[in-house]
Write the structure tokens for this entry.
Amino acid sequence: MIRHKRINQLCILAMALAVVLTVFLYVGEDLGIRRAFGAPEYAFRLFDVSRVHTVDLQVEDWAQFLAEAPMEEYVPCTVVIDGEEFRQVGLRAKGNNSRRLTEEYGLARYSLKLEFDHYVEGGDYHGLDKFSLDASFQDNSYLKSYLAYDMMEYMDVPVPLRSFVWVTVNGQPWGLFLAIEEPEEAFARRNFGVDYGALYKPDYTSLQAENADVALRYVDDSPASYPNIFDNAKFPIDRQDQQRLIQALKTLDSGKQLETAVDVDEVLRYFTVQVFVMNWDSYLGHTGHNYFLYEEEGILSILPWDYNLAFGTYALGMTNPIQDPTVLINWPVNTPAPGAVMRKRPLFHNLMKNDEYFARYHDCFDQFLTEYLESGRYEAVIRQAQALIAPYVEADPTAFCSYEEHLQAVDTLLEVCRLRARSVRGQLNGEYPATLAQQAEHPGVGVDASHVELRSLGNFQNLERAKEKQAAAVAAVEQRI
């Protein structure tokens, strides 16, 4: 029995402190105190970037899985990650153009998606519900997505975790892939806390359609007018969720009081990197997709996704694509899309019409250039990752390129970043044209990039040559040799 002449007073004081602490934690964010989210366990396991991890996919009939991969149907498999086994995990191919072209060229190296709770309710990998395995399609460097996400992360944009993994199938070598945390529940908890908002992956159902909702244009007040957003919600949504998002789009469309509907600072930081890496298979491109949209309390932010065609290798999706490296390296930062596209992309266009936001956009670029590019951080990131993955690339049985082509691609990526940084700095300083109109008036003014061979980063000739090699890898899996 506890005896103390002031025990009652001490108990009352302890209870009072507990109540005060509880209230403080509950309303702390309203008082300006930022939430602190602890990193989940999976971040220290699979997404430890200091090493290449191992993932073995155990599938009963791999050849049949590959034959049916274009349908993107899940099949059950056992996955062994760094020696740890997980059963009844959902596995399917993923991708859009990459999946279509992999099938069209008769190849076998698909990007893949692993879903731990597809067959087992509550299934997870140390708190992670889903991750993908990126095949580095049209990326001979293996580094375009890895570098782009690092750039976004440096600029404080919420990004998926990622790491390199050596994939085997039924114990047989399959290749080096990039594991990427899928933006779903675990991602949302990690970045926004347990009380996270709504997350969407807007995408077109037909490229020939108007797709105004994918472009984040306000149509009307009816949720039925935004099927490409609401049908692609990552979490269950209700009428209130829909109304909040539509109201945000309506405010964005008005061009007024944009900070009541948009996380302006986050969006500007996102577009800084997006424009730098010349990624037009994106919101600023013809397709307008390949991004995630996050909404919380009526405020929108845009999150990065899919960079295998970045650094000028998408060629803008034009009928007659621009392939001149000098034109691409000097692509203007103030109008990073033709007017017909720009006017239909209000999340960029309407912010840039505001003088204050336009100045802040340039400030973001100045910071990014000074701290990430001109400081040499990009080269350190590339060289460190290259040294880590080199032996795996050399041994990759399903690679889209040779090891020598990989080395050339890495050098090309370094040169693209160096020259692009020089061009953007010149644009910010007024030395080079910073809009398409100015470039039309002053053709040829900018950084000379004529020596750069962008095709070395990945092209269709690589796909033709990879077919025989990938067929041999499939045979090895099937024969267990």
Observations:
- The longest strand covers residues 84-94.
- The longest helix spans residues 403-428.
- Strands lie at 53-58, 75-81, 84-94, 111-115, 130-134, 162-169, 172-181, 198-200, 291-296, 299-304.
